[in-house]
């Protein structure tokens, strides 16, 4: 009898020891899970904060660029730039033109790169829609032309074409705004695009830059607003 009681006591002791060991393992696992979860949450919060801060910094940079003056930029009074739709040629006071009476059909300007001159009366309508027109003459190095073509091709509300008789090798025009730059790496290019693509100078913000005249002159009959 005494031997049985001793054996039962030993068994209960072993069972209790195993239970305590199992409970200890469970506590450790819970602590590890909580610790890992905390690290993951903190990491996600930190990453989210980093992304938000980066977006905020980028927005601040864009807003600052949109307000900063652009060196050697020329401006024309928008009130003195005609906006009538005409079917005849227009003699503009500047080259390339930055506004004035124009065709009822715009040049497609959804990052369109034209390798031949485009009609001024159609390009001016694109400017009215908030596009920036990048132009160059034969003095522009081919490397600069290629680099600008890539940039324009990735930027909505822009178009690019040669204008052989313009004064500067590379010029950018928006409605009532124009600047001559030194090359494709001139920081004023990005500043001008940031400031004037659908910028505050736009007479018809949000108007279409597709459905107009294309490179072959066979675009849709897009009507101005």
TrEMBL record:
Q: What are the start and end residues of every segment in region (Disordered)?
A: 200-225
Q: What organism is this sequence from?
A: Streptomyces cinereoruber
Q: Where do transmembrane segments lie in this chain?
A: 31-52
Which InterPro entries does the annotation name? DUF3105
Question: Sorted alphabetically, which keywords does the UniProt record give?
Answer: Membrane, Transmembrane, Transmembrane helix
**Name used for this protein in its record:** DUF3105 domain-containing protein
Superkingdom, natural source: Bacteria
């Amino acid at each position: 009898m005494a031997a049985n009681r001793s054996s039962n006591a030993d068994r209960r002791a072993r069972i209790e020891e195993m239970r305590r060991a199992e409970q200890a393992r469970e506590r450790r696992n819970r602590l590890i899970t909580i610790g890992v979860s905390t690290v993951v949450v903190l990491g996600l919060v930190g990453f989210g904060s980093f992304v938000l801060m980066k977006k905020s910094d980028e927005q601040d940079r864009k807003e600052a660029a949109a307000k900063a003056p652009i060196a050697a930029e020329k401006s024309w009074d928008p009130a003195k730039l005609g906006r009538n739709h005409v079917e005849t040629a227009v003699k503009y006071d500047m080259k390339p033109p930055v506004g004035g009476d124009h065709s009822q059909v715009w040049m497609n300007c959804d990052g369109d790169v034209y390798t031949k001159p485009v009609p001024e009366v159609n390009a001016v309508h694109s400017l009215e829609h908030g596009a920036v027109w990048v132009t160059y003459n034969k003095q522009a190095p081919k490397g600069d032309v290629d680099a600008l073509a890539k940039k324009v091709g990735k930027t909505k509300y822009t178009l690019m074409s040669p204008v052989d008789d313009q004064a500067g090798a590379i010029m950018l025009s928006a409605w009532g705004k124009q600047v001559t730059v030194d090359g494709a790496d001139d920081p004023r290019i990005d500043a001008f695009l940031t400031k004037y693509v659908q910028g505050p100078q736009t007479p018809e913000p949000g108007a279409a830059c597709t459905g107009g005249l294309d490179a072959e002159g066979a675009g849709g009959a897009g009507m101005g607003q």
